[in-house]
Amino acid sequence: MIKLQNVNKSYQLDDEVIFIALNNINLEIEQGEFTSIIGPSGSGKSTLMHIIGLLDQPTSGLIFINNKDVSKLNDNELSSLRNTFVGFVFQQFNLINKLTVLENILIPTIYTRSKLEFDPIEKARYLLKRFGLETKEKSFPNKISGGQQQRVAIARALIMTPQLILADEPTGNLDTKSGSEILKLLHELHEQEKMTVVIVTHDPNIAATTNRKIEIKDGKIQ
Amino acid sequence: MNHFTFVLKSAIEDFSRNKGRTFLTSLGIVIGVLSVVILIAFGLGLRKYINDQFQSLGSNLIRVVPGQILRSGGFSSTGSMTTIRFDFRDILKLERVKSAEFVIPIVTRSITVSMGKGTEPATLYASTADIFLALNLKAQHGGIFTKNDVDKRSKIAVIGPKIAVKLFGNEDAAIGKNIKIDSQTFKIEGVLEAKGGGGFGGPDLDSFIYMPHTTAQVFNPDKKFYAIIVKSKSDINIETAKQEVKTAMLKRYKEDDFSVIDQAELLGAIESIFGVMNTVLVAIAAVSLVVGGIGIMNIMYVTVTERIKEIGIRRALGARTSDILLQFLVESVALSVLGGLMGLGFAYLIVFFIQNFFPAYIDLNSVVLALGVSSVIGIVFGVFPAKKAANLSPIDAIRSE
Ligand SMILES: Nc1ncnc2c1ncn2[C@@H]1O[C@H](COP(=O)(O)OP(=O)(O)O)[C@@H](O)[C@H]1O
Ligand SMILES: [Mg+2]
User: Fold this and answer.
1) Backbone angles phi, psi at A18, to 5 degrees
2) Residue B58 confidence class, pLDDT cut points 50, 70, 90
3) How far off is chain A from B319, nearest CA to CA, in Å?
4) Which ligand 1 atom is at minimum distance from the Cα of A200?
5) Which of A162, A182, B55, B279 fits a 20 to 30 Å CA distance from A1?
6) Pfam families from the entry (chain A) (predicted)?
7) In the beta sheet, which residues pair with residue A18?
8) Which of B1, B309, B398 sits opposite A55 (nearest CB)?
9) Are residues B195 and B121 in the same domain?
């Protein structure tokens, strides 16, 4: 489903120093896989995830999505793919605090250019109910717990029924109990809905629960 | 819910959460719109006031006055102090003009009227009996003077209601009483209906004292007239009538010695003065609108900086650059229009109070103008901050703290 070919990402820190964040990454993720990307802090996990999710562009190398080279796509086309193809889940939840829980979940639906095949509010309410948040619809994100916020973020990632869920340390800001609940939820999505999931983590225990593990260190796959 | 209504709704919710900041930001627009709308309301009121004044003077009137009082759309500052004065020969000549219904001479002077111990300044306005018809004057108490009074030089006067009240306490009491002007005694024949007016430098018609011009010759021994009013026949075009009057006058006077004017022309001259005044005032108001716009631009730059993370989140969820541009543009326009609406609201309040003593009013054009101008300002001054927001790179935005 996704293929990265000789992907490099480097940052020009000043006139002389170039920092290499990703070093010749080759990787392929198949439909229906539950993959973890594991590595120490600063190893380039988030950078890799952002590139897979088309939020960032590689300095060199090719990316194929469903066998289509996306390096030539313009900003509008990339935005559309982010809107419909991927669902992001971040460590810091990244909800918009001045919008209600329901409005946060609806954000992707307002940016879509094709006609929706579902009723956005109905679907958002279905997801809220499924994640045990039906009473929080009108709450603001900073008024609910971290575990609840992350479930809202997952609902938002799911509203457009993406083919791929990218979760960047989704349990990193949570206590153990809420963290394992979130992990369980991601596993449910994978098992029940055959969702393709990539989870970024530095926790070997989490990586151990996935059926595929990619280790990264200093920007290189081990 | 489509994108636009969603964005508009969240912008408005944002403003209601930050009422103080929203108000301060749009203050420039509030003041700008307020002053433009008030100025226009005053202009409209003034125009209406002047129109009403002219209406009350009657229509189809042509005035022949000495000198050049109008020049290319404005009042002439020179030339009105000419030496010529009209006399009875001019009246006779104008009476032969085909389109003239009647011709009346005008003698006017500033005088002091006394009655017992009290004295009052007033304006003497002497003419024929047709003056009441021409100027639409009706007696409220008593009567007016007649052609017979003019022929007999009756020592009578018809006075305005204001001067009547000043001299006699009430209008009724004046009838049949005597007044003295320069040691001459006149009997009051009637008191006229109020015409309004006065103030703003205009003639206070209600303080005029009317008498036959023949009677007034005691104050006007050389029998010259200050002006001549010609009432044209109602079925005749006023321009034709004016041309005929002018031709008749040219037989005796040079072109520069006199002016032939009608209401519309006088009104036009006054309006062109207001036009200049309005342009200056509107320009001043425009400056405050621009200052208001710059205020909005500033706050929008601050907003964009504060919300870089939000922009990154929206981009990660599929927002295009144009979506972000639209979002911030809608916010700046909403902010500006909100200021416009507040300005309009304050203007309504102020005009409401002003209406107690002046007929200022806000018309639909002002409302459209206020909202149009504030939208344009919102767009013009919002577009730079919105462009900045739209052009942020998604990854830098979402990685920002
Ligand atoms: N915009 C940038 N400029 C310079 N260095 C960056 C930038 N973004 C990320 N990096 C660096 O790239 C490395 C990898 O970052 P990241 O992918 O966030 O690591 P991880 O998620 O594995 O902790 C880090 O050392 C980070 O400092
Ligand atoms: Mg990271």
Assistant:
1) -110, 130
2) low
3) 5
4) 21
5) A182
6) ABC_tran
7) A12
8) B398
9) yes
- 3-state per-residue secondary structure call for B83-134: CCCECHHHHHHHHCCCCEEEEEEEEEEEEEEEECCEEEEEEEEEECCCHHHH
Residue B379 pLDDT level (bands cut at 50, 70, 90): very high
Give the minimum alpha-carbon distance from B309 to chain A in angstroms, rounded to a whole number. 8
Report the complex ipTM. 0.96
Q: How far is the CA of A5 from the centre of ligand 2 (A)?
A: 22
Residue B136 inside a domain? The answer is yes
Q: Using the atom order of ligand 1, give the atom closest to the CA of residue A9.
A: 12
The whole-angstrom separation of Cα B47 and Cα B274 is: 9
* Residue B323 touches chain A, beta carbons under 8 Å: yes
Is there a single domain that holds both residue B391 and residue B280? Answer: yes
B311: nearest CA partner in chain A: A96
> A45: CA distance to ligand 2 center in Å?
6
Q: Would you say the CB of residue A201 lies under 6 angstroms from ligand 1?
A: no
Q: What is the model's pTM?
A: 0.73
Q: Identify the domain boundary among B199, B224, B249.
A: B224
Q: Distance between the two ends of chain A, CA-based, in angstroms?
A: 22
Residue B287 lies in a domain: yes
pLDDT at res. B1 = 54
CB of A14 closer than 6 A to ligand 1?
Answer: no
Residue identifier of the C-alpha nearest atom 4 of ligand 1: A11
Q: Which two tokens stand for residue A63?
A: 């990316």
Q: In this structure, are B323 and B380 located in the same domain?
A: yes
At A23, is the secondary structure helix, strand, or coil? strand
Task: Map out the domains of chain A as residue ranges.
Answer: 30-59+74-221
Query: What would the pLDDT profile of B304-361 be if each residue is shown by its tens digit?
Result: 999 999 999 999 999 999 999 999 999 899 889 999 999 999 999 999 998 887 888 8
How high does pLDDT run on average in chain A? 93
Same domain for B392 and B297, yes or no, is yes
Q: Domain of residue B286: give its range.
A: 2-52+270-399
Domain count, chain B: 2
B57 pLDDT above the threshold of 70: no
Q: B75 in a domain, yes or no?
A: no
Out of B224, B259, B280, a domain closes at B224
Indicate the SS3 state at residue B19: helix
Q: What superfamily would CATH give domain A30-59+74-221?
A: P-loop containing nucleotide triphosphate hydrolases (3.40.50.300)
Q: What is the pLDDT of residues B124-180, one digit of tens each?
A: 999 999 888 888 888 899 999 999 999 999 999 999 998 888 888 888 888 998 999
Alpha carbon nearest to ligand 1 atom 14, residue: A44
The verdict on B302 and B212 lying in the same domain is no
B92 found inside a domain: no
